[in-house]
């Protein structure tokens, strides 16, 4: 096997790790640990940004509902994860599903039913981190940090939605393609 093929093989085999595994899983619990964590993982970034882009074209009421729905789903998921209701593997598949659903919603230009489904599936992001980090103490600080960061990323997604609607006619499709790619990588 040539050196180039080896480099490509190693690169492709590390894609799932880059998509879902990211720093911030240290077993310390603080607001800043929780706050910084979503900014270090493509799964969090893509889901919250794509969700914001999705809801940009919705009515103002849906934008606000999306903001609070995302926060509530993350909190509920975190609590369920801390209680170890679902195994972490189940949560990881839920994260992949959340990316696939938001990608589908963006491609189908559906703002309601898929938006609700995406909000509910966002709970799996909370479940995964409740399982991983919920036993380390100071769960409330960690959870508030994560929810605050995800809310900021969602607001960035709303801004990106406004930008793409005005300047990039194919912007929704680009964001959808990125979310779908990340979902496929997550399955690997």
UniProtKB/TrEMBL annotation:
Leader sequence residues: 1-21
Coiled coil region boundaries: none
Alphabetical UniProt keywords: Membrane, Signal, Transmembrane, Transmembrane helix
Ranges that cross the membrane: 36-57, 64-83, 89-108, 113-130, 142-163
Identification of the protein by name: HupE/UreJ family protein
């Amino acid at each position: 096997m040539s050196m180039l093929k080896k480099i490509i093989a190693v690169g492709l085999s590390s894609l799932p790790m880059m998509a879902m595994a990211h720093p911030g899983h240290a077993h310390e619990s603080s607001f800043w640990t929780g706050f910084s964590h979503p900014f270090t993982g493509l799964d969090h970034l893509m889901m919250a940004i794509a969700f914001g882009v999705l809801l940009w074209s919705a009515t103002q009421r849906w934008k606000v509902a999306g903001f609070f729905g995302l926060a509530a789903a993350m909190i509920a998921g975190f609590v369920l994860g801390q209680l170890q209701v679902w195994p972490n593997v189940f949560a990881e598949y839920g994260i992949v599903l959340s990316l696939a659903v938001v990608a589908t919603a963006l491609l189908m230009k559906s703002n309601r039913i898929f938006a609700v489904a995406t909000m509910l599936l966002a709970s799996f992001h909370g479940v995964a981190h409740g399982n991983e980090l919920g036993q380390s103490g100071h769960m409330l600080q960690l959870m508030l940090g994560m929810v605050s960061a995800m809310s900021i990323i969602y607001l960035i997604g709303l801004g990106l939605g406004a930008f793409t609607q005005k300047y990039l006619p194919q912007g929704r499709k680009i964001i959808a393609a990125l979310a779908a790619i990340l979902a496929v990588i997550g399955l690997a």
